[in-house]
Design a protein that fits this description.
By secondary structure, this protein is of the alpha+beta class. The chain contains eight helices and 13 strands. The N and C termini lie close together (8 Å).
Length: 270
């Protein structure tokens, strides 16, 4: 199994060497899918589940008038099936946003590991809780935050999620999203998003240009967005046993502001 899944699970606390070995040893059938393609529903089976090993994908709905609402971004190490527990969720589609690698595994095998390792079971449960918490923040974006606030919030969220995977380096990371992909998640037009990103860039706190997200002043961007990362870690952010990344002075404007760095490609790690 991908090391990215392990990194996702270790947001909530360190896994033991035995637990990581057990996850890595799971039998996984991998396949590659090109960019901007829907994942076919007929490829899914009730006894199987999928995890994104590399690349970016999203959950979305297209309304009868043709407008698209992006419901969630799926990053490496996150589950990308339509099922939750024993329930099928047919009301949305899943599409790749870049070339991806997908791993398919038996749900029963993962359930067996969760029964065997309580810490792994807890991490899987918390990962599902984080999905719900993230959805709540996206609802707040649409319902209460201004376009500027929700854009800043989305940039912060993407940066923190990618940084956990070691996919951010010196305050920047590659994000294979078009502006339309972000606009459809924020429920604003691409033109409005472009103007909003320009405002953020002129504040010298961050930018998103040609698929590159650069955070110049993370505390200032968080303040603008009202962003607190706790929901991405199920309340374990900064707690003992979590897996913090090293500090990076590139994302601070003075000595009192810091952030973390890693290094990798967003489409690697399968």
């Amino acid at each position: 199994m991908s090391r990215m899944l392990i990194l996702q699970l270790e947001r909530f606390g360190r896994l033991s060497a035995e637990e990581k070995l057990a996850v890595t040893a799971m039998r996984v059938r991998s396949r590659r899918v090109g960019s901007r393609q829907d994942l076919a529903r007929e490829d899914e089976a009730p006894e199987l589940d999928d995890v994104l090993l590399a690349g970016f994908a999203c959950r979305y709905v297209v309304l009868p008038n043709g407008r698209r609402q992006v419901l969630a971004y799926i990053l490496p190490g996150e589950f990308c099936g339509r099922r939750t527990g024993n329930c099928d969720l047919p009301e949305h589609a899943i599409a790749t946003l870049s070339a991806v690698k997908i791993g398919t595994f038996a749900r029963e095998e993962l359930a067996s590991l969760a029964h065997r390792f309580p810490a792994l079971a807890r991490a899987l449960e918390l990962s599902r809780a984080v999905e719900q918490a993230t959805l709540c923040q996206w609802l707040l974006n649409l319902g209460q935050r201004t376009a500027l606030e929700r854009t800043a919030h989305m940039l912060c969220e993407l940066f923190f999620r990618l940084r956990c995977l070691g996919l951010a380096h010196e305050g920047g990371c590659e994000v294979p999203l078009r502006q339309a992909d972000i606009a459809d998640a924020l429920a604003i037009s691409a033109v409005h998003l472009n103007r909003t990103l320009t405002r953020i860039r002129r504040l010298h706190i961050g930018s998103f240009l040609r698929n590159h997200l650069l955070i110049e002043d993370l505390p200032a961007l968080q303040k603008l967005a009202g962003f607190r990362p706790d929901y991405l870690f199920a309340g374990t952010f900064g707690s003992r046993g979590s897996s913090p990344a090293p500090r990076d002075s590139r994302t601070r404007r003075d000595a009192s502001h810091s952030s973390d760095i890693g290094a990798a490609s967003p489409v690697s790690g399968g």
